[in-house]
Write a structure and sequence with these properties.
The protein has 637 residues and is α+β, with helices and mostly antiparallel strands. Helices cover 15% and strands 30% of the residues. It is built from ten helices and 38 strands. The strands form nine sheets. The chain has an eight-stranded parallel beta barrel, surrounded by four helices. Helix 5 links the parallel strand 7 and strand 8. The protein starts with 7 loop residues before the first strand and ends in a 21-residue tail after the last strand.
């Protein structure tokens, strides 16, 4: 890499790079949501579409899943991703956080921070800054050599993310800036906020960028008041919003997207398209939103992006490529054909073991007089439990009214011995425990609680403990003396010698239970999609890797299985089913992400918003816009 001295700068109303005017045309790709084998493919497609920059976020919770245990290898090898970006000729805007949002569990913050009952996330609270300093000590030396002046691709670094909408500590943003700079970050620094939080998230001598939401004429007046004449970067021009379980799928109208981008080009606005390629919420990385109700996110992070979840071109990709080529010079890169997908033969889940069967094979349960939440459980070398499930057992002597009083986070299945009783969750706070004639005097009450994803944003993230977060009451008396099993569902959990106790499946079974099947693949494994008809709710594992959650309430119907995760020959598929199992696992070569809710949103300067919407089935249908939206940038022309 050659040495360079003049990086990305602000010169009047333009960005310059090497002293020449530079329009940032960026798209977001998250390396941690894309199989490493496909990084180059996705980045080349970004370049071929006409983008000159890739934006990526750095998830602290994945890089430091346990306190002081850091991972920068495999799919988390950030340096390798940045090298590939450089090799294909892309610049990089890096967003190291520590909070990044990105629809991740706790916005990308590690859950072990919440062991401290006084924790104040995203503030200068000493417990938080101590952890941030240790993280930055490990992260920044890895990225500093890849900055522009050293011949690397990083031209800008974002300081935190959307702090103006959080804003619990006016000293915090300056602390984060200093923490980055003193460790060697010296490229152009940026803040990123929506229109309402612009001033509160701003730092002196740091370029403020804006998000598409809440954009009004006043937004640009605020920009001008805090930094004078300056270039405008639309840091999050979004293709979509998150999809939650039990909702319709969301997407924006491509014609409106195209119209807005044309106007941005006419006004010399820079932009970052979020997401250019969304990828997948593999494992339990997806977070949740608090809209009208708690909304856990689906496994796919397709996000209505210009590339599909599995990396294929969309019609919108072609349209944007044509638009970009009409206004800028695009390097001549051949457009690859879509990768062939396999339709593998259905796998019969021939063996199973119930959750109750494996309890004696697990680590010794934690014993406690009162319930303990996941984060404070004495597991993982003192870092607590981050994800998955947690099982609470106690003994009762009578039936009656079981009341959670809001202490089940997020979804608890209640069992009397092994008999399913019902669900306690965000909307159901009580159940009746039956007492039948002939029952034993002492019965085991079991509550299997699933962490469905911590909130990804908002001030309520400080409250996001999971499991049983307080007392559970039977007939108004708090239950006591629990045995607590950690069921984090990581690869180590699945490799405990469990095959010794697999039993043959002879009929459909009630969960919770694990089901085993073998997928046989030829010499050249291909991408495919798993289809779980007749299954209810649970988690899929392939060769020990957590593919993600499934749930028959939709909208997501298929689950992306990358070819690199398969091996020639036999591949072990384990399904953890919470309720009622199917009998086989099917495969398809097409993604089915559910019924679409088409949205058209356009801000206009009289402080109103034009919103038209309709439902459209995935196989067709029409959508009528009730009002022609005005160009959202017209007032700036």
């Amino acid at each position: 890499m050659r040495n360079r001295h003049v990086g990305l700068k602000v010169e009047g109303s333009n960005f310059t790079l090497d002293g020449f005017p530079f329009l940032i045309i960026s798209g977001t790709i998250h390396y941690f949501r894309v199989p490493r084998d496909y990084w180059r493919d996705r980045l080349l497609k970004l370049k071929a579409c006409g983008f000159n920059t890739v934006t990526t976020h750095v998830p602290w919770n994945l890089h430091e899943p346990k306190r002081s245990q850091f991972y920068f290898i495999g799919n988390l090898d950030l340096k390798a991703f940045l090298f590939v970006a450089s090799e294909v000729g892309l610049w990089v805007i890096l967003c190291p956080g520590p909070y990044i949002g990105s629809d991740l569990d706790l916005g990308g913050l590690p859950s072990w921070l919440l062991q401290d009952p006084k924790m104040k996330l995203r503030t200068t609270y000493k417990g938080f800054t101590k952890a941030v300093n240790r993280y930055f000590d490990m992260l920044v030396p890895r990225i500093a050599p890849l900055q522009y002046k050293n011949g690397g691709p990083i031209i800008a670094v974002q300081v935190e993310n959307e702090y103006g909408s959080y804003h619990l500590d006016k000293r915090y943003m300056l602390y984060i800036k200093k923490a980055l700079v003193k460790r060697g970050v010296d490229v152009l620094l940026m803040t990123a906020d929506d229109g309402q939080g612009l001033i509160r998230g701003h730092l002196e001598k740091v370029i403020a960028t804006v998000h598409m939401k809440n954009i009004k004429k006043e937004t640009y007046e605020k920009l001008s008041s805090i930094q004078g004449r300056s270039p405008i970067l639309m840091m999050v021009y979004t293709a979509n919003s998150l999809d939650g379980w039990g909702t319709l799928r969301h997407t924006l109208d491509a014609n409106v997207l195209m119209k807005d981008v044309r106007e941005m080009f006419n006004l010399r606005f820079s932009l970052n398209f979020y997401m250019f390629h969304g990828g997948t919420n593999f494992g339990f990385m997806g977070g949740a939103a608090s809209l009208q109700n708690y909304l856990p996110m689906v496994t796919s992070y397709d996000y209505g992006a210009l590339l599909t979840e599995d990396g294929d071109y969309t019609p919108e990709y072609i349209s944007f490529q044509e638009l970009f080529s009409s206004v800028i010079e695009i390097p001549k890169l051949s457009r690859e054909d879509a990768r062939p997908k396999a339709v593998y033969k259905s796998v019969i889940t021939a063996y199973y073991m119930s959750l109750w069967d494996i309890l004696t094979y697990l680590d010794e349960p934690v014993r406690s007089a009162k319930p303990i939440c996941m984060e404070k459980l004495s597991v993982n070398q003192g870092s607590g439990q981050s994800y998955g499930y947690i099982l609470y057992e106690t003994v009762i002597t009578t039936g009656g009214l079981l009341a959670s009083r809001g202490h089940v986070q997020d979804r608890g299945q209640v069992f009397l011995e092994e008999k399913y009783i019902g669900i306690l969750d965000h909307s159901t706070n009580q159940l009746t425990i039956p007492k039948e004639k002939g029952q034993k005097d002492y019965l085991t009450l079991r509550i299997l609680v699933e962490n469905q994803g911590r909130l990804a944003y908002g001030q309520d993230i400080n409250k996001e403990r999971k499991g049983l977060t307080g007392d559970i009451y039977l007939n108004n008396s708090p239950l006591r003396n629990f045995k607590i099993y950690s069921l984090e569902m990581n690869p180590k959990f699945l490799k405990r010698g469990l095959p010794k106790i697999w039993k043959p499946v002879i009929h459909k079974l009630q969960g919770p239970a694990f089901f085993l099947g073998i997928l046989r693949v030829g010499n050249y494994p291909k991408d495919t999609f798993i289809k779980l008809e007749d299954w209810t709710k649970g988690v899929i594992f392939i060769n020990g890797q957590n593919l993600g959650r499934y749930w028959n309430i939709g909208p997501q119907e298929t689950f992306y299985l990358p070819g690199p995760w398969l091996q020639p020959g036999s591949n072990e598929i384990i399904v953890f089913e919470e309720f009622k199992s199917g009998t086989k696992i099917q495969f398809t070569n097409m993604s089915h992400l559910g019924t679409v809710f088409w949205r058209v949103i356009c801000s206009i300067w009289d402080n109103s918003v034009v919103l038209s919407s309709c439902d459209r089935e995935k196989e067709g249908g029409t959508c009528t816009i009730s009002q022609e939206p005005e160009p959202f940038l017209t007032a700036l022309a």
